[in-house]
Write a structure and sequence with these properties.
Mean pLDDT: 94
Strand order of the largest sheet: 3-2-1-4-5-6-7
Number of helices: 6
Shape: globular
Number of domains: 1
CATH class: Alpha Beta
Largest sheet: 7 strands, parallel
Number of strands: 7
Radius of gyration: 16 Å
Length: 224
């Protein structure tokens, strides 16, 4: 049975991606900061007949994130698909508050780099060597639109998520002959705040389509 690990799992898009892959027979490993929230998500998935478990870790705590993914591997076996979609809540961590291009400084960039870039690199390092050894695997990355488009009000976020985007595109090119596929999904939409095209279940279809086709290094999802 194949396994998808979702880093940054929440009750919106993360849960919908879990359901979409779970419907296809995947077991689901969920990673986020709160074990209580993870247990709730696992309960919802289990009601749908999907095998799932939660592994608590803060993306900013690199040893904890590595440990969570290793525990997921011990529980379910090798991770076949990694989906990385950090979604900071500014009320929980004011250091992650977006600032405009004119307000960018070293300090407010650093936390975003820790979150997006170091978090992604840490997660990938935990699963990629085994993927390369097997000659198969998929790496899915989600960011906001500022990674690929100009949003001056997201100055520090755009620097970090843009760096992550660049690395993902380079990964896809580097891994092409190793059986491992990497792709980036910049979301230019207000998730759940509009018509059907903004709903998490609809957006999740994009991830399944990318996983099946494996022919795009990036797909912008926009409803703006």
């Amino acid at each position: 049975m194949s396994t998808i690990a979702i880093v940054g799992a929440g009750p919106g898009l993360g849960l919908s991606i879990a359901r979409r892959f779970g419907k296809e027979g995947f077991t689901v490993a969920l990673v986020s900061r709160s074990q209580g929230r993870l247990d709730d998500l696992v309960g919802q998935l289990e009601k749908d007949g999907i095998t799932a478990a939660g592994f608590a870790a803060d993306i900013l705590d690199r040893p904890a994130l590595t440990g969570a993914l290793h525990r997921a591997t011990e529980r379910f076996g090798p991770v076949d698909v990694l989906e990385f979609s950090p979604a900071p809540k500014q009320a929980d961590d004011p250091a992650l508050t977006p600032v405009s291009a004119l307000e960018v400084n070293v300090e407010n960039i650093q936390q975003q780099i820790d979150y997006y870039v170091y978090g992604a690199v840490t997660a990938v390092q935990a699963v990629l060597p085994a993927m390369i050894e097997r000659g198969s695997g998929t790496l899915l990355f989600t960011t906001g639109a500022s990674s690929a488009l100009v949003f001056p009000q997201m100055g520090n976020v755009g620097i970090a998520s843009g760096a992550l985007r660049n690395w993902v595109l380079a990964l896809n090119a580097t891994l092409a002959d190793k059986g491992v596929y990497a792709t980036h999904v910049p979301l230019a939409t207000w998730i759940g705040q509009g018509g059907p095209e903004t709903q998490p279940d609809t957006i999740a279809e994009t991830y399944w389509d990318l996983y099946i086709k494996r022919d795009e290094a990036e797909r912008l999802y926009s409803t703006l």
